[in-house]
Amino acid sequence: MKPTFLEFEQPIAELDAKIEQLRFVQDDSAVDISDEISRLEVKSQSLTKDIYAKLTSWQSALVARHPQRPYTLDYVDLIFSDYQELHGDRSFSDDQAIVGGLARFNGQSCLVIGHQKGRDTKEKIHRNFGMPRPEGYRKALRLMRLAEKFQIPVFTFIDTPGAYPGIGAEERGQSEAIGRNLFEMAELKVPIIATVIGEGGSGGALAIATADIVSMLQYSTYSVISPEGCASILWKSADNAGDAAEAMGITATRLKSLGLIDKIIAEPLGGAHRDHRAVAANVKKSLQDGLKSLIGLSPAELVERRMDRLMSYGKFKEIEIH
Amino acid sequence: MSWLQKLLPPKIKRAEGVRRSMPEGLWSKCPVCEAVLYTTDLENNQNVCPKCGHHLRLRARVRLDLLLDPEGRFEIGAEVVPLDPLKFKDSKRYIDRLAAANADTGEADAMVVLQGAIKTVQVVVACFEFEFLGGSMGSVVGERFVRGVKAAIEQQIPFICITASGGARMQEGLFSLMQMAKTTAAVSLLAQHKLPFISILTDPTMGGVSASFAFVGDVVIAEPGALIGFAGPRVIEQTVREKLPEGFQRAEFLLEKGAIDMIVDRRELRDRVASLLTLLQRVPAV
Q1: Helices (H) and strands (E) in chain B — how many of each?
Q2: Is the pLDDT higher at A6 or at B22?
Q3: Which residues of A touch B143 (CB under 8 A)?
Q4: What angle do CA A136, A142, A146 make, to 5 degrees?
Q5: pTM as predicted
Q6: DSSP state, residue A56
Q7: Residue A182: its pLDDT value, please?
Q8: CA distance A231 to chain B (A)
Q9: Cα A270-A271-A272 angle, rounded to 5 deg
Q10: Which residues on adjacent β-strands are paired with residue A6?
Q11: Residue A262 to residues A112, A153, B15: CA-CA distances in angstroms?
């Protein structure tokens, strides 16, 4: 698959196009230019390294939204076996923006839940651009209850711009659905491991991310509101999304240093979309380590630990009151 | 200058100055029926328009004062005050916004928690202050809420939250999103202890506050006409590109859709809540 380049990657794109051209020339040329090609390849690598070493928060957000980035079902394919998708919330419909099902992880039973985006226009619409409606959260909760009943650990994959702001979503209790998940996930008696693989967009993300361990891919983002949304409210223009992204601190590195997430999972050079297999291997390792650290805990210990974590969120100071 | 003023002799013209010095806010206008009301009458009526029944917004402490018995109140969590963990700055610095809101409202953040009684029924009540940065939920709101819940559990008494909020506080970034998880987890502790949690939604209850503990109350009450929802009406309109139905996201709409238990007139709230609490706790009526 040919990579799609983002705007800030244009220097890499130009170099790669040149390499491609030389390769084409070499095929029917007597002169050996393979040295030149490999020299340019090294240059392309180091250029990518340079650009990615100083990604701004906003550029990270663009990588997190990259059209070729692996989505939940790609990780399901690459990490799990025997995946059996389970559908529907049992009261209204089957939300296509959240998928879930039983699977095996290293041979052991587990439950996988994740936001799902689409690749082409048709699938994007089918998946509602990864923006769940209330039924998605309710399906997720139903599956988590199922996992609890059979003592199966839960892996969630976070990748959504946010909850869908639609009339029907409001009519069917979007707020209640998200709130209910937060309420129930706080005391679910099986391990929950959440991984932000792309966009962690606000309440729509949190509704399946209240977990024992929260990891983020290196170039994924997690925020209370989209940078565009924040910019249009506080800066009065969505054009300031870059400023908003920087100010809110949405990147894995920043959030790790603030103590809001547990772990950063490395992505291949140039982002996860450059090598799905490599990033999936890193994610697998992270899930494996996470599960290992939780497996010895009794359900009561697990819930207590999760509650302590949830209660510790927040930065404030305490003063003496006279 | 109007033709009338031009006609008036200079002496009477000067009298205008006297009118200007009249205390401000003596008269208020109902935003719905536009009736001009004597402010004292409006206040005596709990900020409900005596002409059309529209519920105007109330400051947190006024609301708590109206709901709780005068005796035996004390505040919880006032020692928790805000920080600026991200050094956030848009057109203004977050710490300056905090200071300005503090100067305007006299509050350190957007939530006041009191322990007290409603018609002698012991309760802890957490109330949002909408005048403080739109009642937005940041770390202090979350922590004060949790301290209120913990006090309720310690004393085995019910917990009530009165919401009036635009949602999460963007200036605290992901810390504010995590307050949704934190507050809602605290409510799950109340449930484990079989203590009633009554959620009272007032105008407005939106975003991250609406989508956390607001709807997981054992009983969910809304004030008449309150705007309640997750996404703001403007955002929805822009997304779906159609006109929103009449009364969309208003309390009456939510009642019709089955999202809330009841709509209660503010002037009856004390009686209704006391009755609900005694019923849930299986104790004699008060």
Answers
A1: 11, 11
A2: A6
A3: 314, 316
A4: 140
A5: 0.93
A6: -
A7: 98
A8: 9
A9: 140
A10: none
A11: 20, 18, 70
